[in-house]
Amino acid sequence: MLSDGGFWIVQILNSLQLAMLLFLLSVGLTVIFGLMNFVNLAHGSLYAAGALIGYSVSMWTGSVWWAYLLAPVAVMALGWALYGLVIDRMRKAGPMNQVLVTFGLIFVLMDVQRYIWGTDQVGVQNAPFSGSIEILGQIYPEYRLFIIAVGLGVFALLYLSLEYTRLGAEVRAGVDDAETASCLGVNVERTFLIVFLIGCALAGLAGAVALPAFSAEAGMGIAILIPTLVVVVVGGLGSLTGALAGSLLIATTLTFGQVFLPKFAGILMYALLVVILLVRPQGLFPARS
Amino acid sequence: MLKTRTGAALVAALAAAAVALPAKAAEYKVGLLVPLSGVYAGLGNHIENGFNLGIEHFGSELGEHTITLERADTEANPASTLGKAKKMVLQDKVDVLTGIVSSAVLGALRDFVHQSQTPLVVANAGNDEATGKDCTPYIIRVSFSNAQVNRPMGTWMANKGIKKVYLMAPDYAAGHQMMNTFRKSFTEAGGEIVGEAYPPLQGTNDYGPYLAAAQAANPDAIFTFFAGSAAIAFVKQYKDFGIGKDIPLYGSGFLTSAAYVHVQGEAADGVTASLHYVPTIDTAENKRFQEAYQAKHEGKLGSEFAVAGYDAARLIIEAIKMSGGDKKALAENLRKVEFTGPRGPLSIDPATNNVVQNVYIFRNDFKDGKVTQTVLDTIPDVQDPPNGCKMM
């Protein structure tokens, strides 16, 4: 097994695929966190909403491509509603209240999802790239390569917009020092809303992309929340590079832990978290240095 | 003198009437404890749907007795369920409890049920101890035990010439119980276990890393237990990684449950599993159940969970009929009920109070865009050994 090159390639691709899913989820969370010090624990519920809406869209249109397109938009709209109803009011309420309120939101959103989609698992059959290809004698699902491509594409897009657009400059300034940025004429409130909505859309995209591979059900957002939060903390708050690095690190740990130390796979992630917090309490690539 | 004697006679007659009255028409209260929220809400829904259909089909046989239903949400939470069960028994005065999806919840209720002498008809929770070393005359299980549905498969696979098997199940009590039972019967019949893995129950449903490791162990077959969204992900990924071409997938029947096999679709093709119920059983009882269930629930198949609810309702009704209004006899009579339901003949083993039933070995076939389940073999009247059960 260990000397088999194909085995290593498959496991590395598995790590990458999980990393990209975690990246799509954590990047929104971390930038929202970093920009406004806002903790949105209901982020995982938006992932579930993306998968469930994606399911309905693909049933309705007969194509999963529409789900990739419409689910992020719908989740963004949901995020906007949440922002207006709850999050904007909780902005100044302090981290404890934010955690409690958004934790409560998880259950509200789960019940809403259960009311609309029922309690059974749902899934789609007609996904693109449903075949497999052979890599060094090992069969690998094409769909997982597609997930990797989506993740890398989103990273590239986010990186370019952060580095080369005005919005990117405002975000970087806002994360660095919100007060100074505000004095320099940056509308931090508006920037925050836009970043928040993009984060929601990415969570929705992650859900829609995960749907064909993993199926969907109300409440699926809770399980994914913990590795996502670990990624945010490990990577460093508010940092795009951190989100990518954290995702890669956690996904690799989970994947290879499952292969070589199956009995400890569940706790390896937390062990890594503890080590990184001891060595670098601010995370690997903190936005504010 | 005459007056007092008449008075006494009148009082005696009234007293006799008061005693005799419940024997004529008794009102039974049933407490239904199923999760309607939390991770097991889907199963709770299936059981409740089945239970309601059972009441509808068999309730009219009760004559002048009546059944009323109290329901509470167990949320798969042992502590809060114990509180709700106590309220049902002590305050609402229910005569019998039923439901219970999670084995942990069943474990938490065990002592209370035993001490309060309230019979509990279990409609899911399969932990072996509940009808083994923790058994009590007041816990009657109408669903299955983890050992019961997997033991026949070990013998069956070994007899089919499968020599080397790799095991995989989620890392919790039910996963280990199912694998241990399979391992025992499979190795006793001459098979060999070449490796095993127990992924965490919660977290990501990504089994790619485990599948590659299992494949590398080069077994003749993989035997697994997964349920719910984990089962969907596992079966899909098994196909996506192309493992099924060389290494066929076998499992406990929950792997391809009627509740979600349509979501697995083509990926379920060829997966062979064992369970106490398959929707394709060709009997009048099953046909009646499936037709009524599908008519009520948008064409969805009645799953093994719905059947457990359905049979729990029928078991309680049959026991009430046998008791003739005597509530004290109910617990004893629940253990004596026998009938043929959707899954075939069913009785309660007096030694353990676990159900005695057929186990079906079936293959999933994907045809015309749908998965149908073909019964390959029926192992009749599967009964668990007492496993330390001393009925007291």
Please sum up the structure shown.
Chain A has 289 residues and is an all-alpha fold. Chain A has helices at residues 5-36, 43-61, 64-90, 95-117, 142-164, 166-176, 178-183, 188-214, 220-235, 240-260, 265-279; strands spanning 132-135, 138-141. Helix content of chain A is 76%, strand content 3%.
Mean pLDDT of chain B: 91
Instruction: Name the poorly predicted regions of chain B.
Output: none
Strand content of chain B: 15-25%
Element-level helix/strand string of chain A: HHHHEEHHHHHHH
Oligomer: heterodimer
Sketch the major β-sheet of chain B: 9 strands, mixed
Walk me through this protein's architecture.
The complex is a heterodimer of chains A (about 290) and B (about 400). Chain A is mostly helical and about 290 residues long. Chain A contains 11 helices and 2 strands, in the order ααααββααααααα. Chain A has a two-stranded antiparallel sheet with strand order 1-2. In chain A, strand 1 and strand 2 (about 140) form a beta hairpin. Chain A starts with a helix and ends in a 10-residue tail after the last helix. Chain B is about 40% helix and about 20% strand. Chain B has 12 helices and 14 strands. Chain B has helices at about 1-25, 40-60, 80-90, 105-115, 145-160, 175-190, 210-215, 230-240, 260-265, 285-295, 305-325, 330-335; strands spanning about 25-35, 65-75, 95-100, 120, 140, 165-170, 190-195, 220-225, 250, 270-275, 340, 345-350, 355-365, 370-380. In chain B, strands 6, 7, 8, 9, 10, 11, 12, 13 and 14 form a 9-stranded mixed β-sheet that branches. Chain B has a 5-stranded parallel β-sheet with strand order 2-1-3-4-5, with helices on both faces. In chain B, helix 2 crosses helix 11 (about 305-325), helix 3 (about 80-90) runs parallel beside helix 4 (about 105-115) and helix 5 (about 145-160) runs parallel beside helix 6 (about 175-190). The radius of gyration of chain B is 23 Å and the shape is globular. Classes of the chains: A mainly alpha (about 290), B alpha/beta (about 400). At the A-B interface, helix 1, helix 4, strand 2, helix 9 and helix 10 of A face helix 2, helix 7 and helix 8 of B.
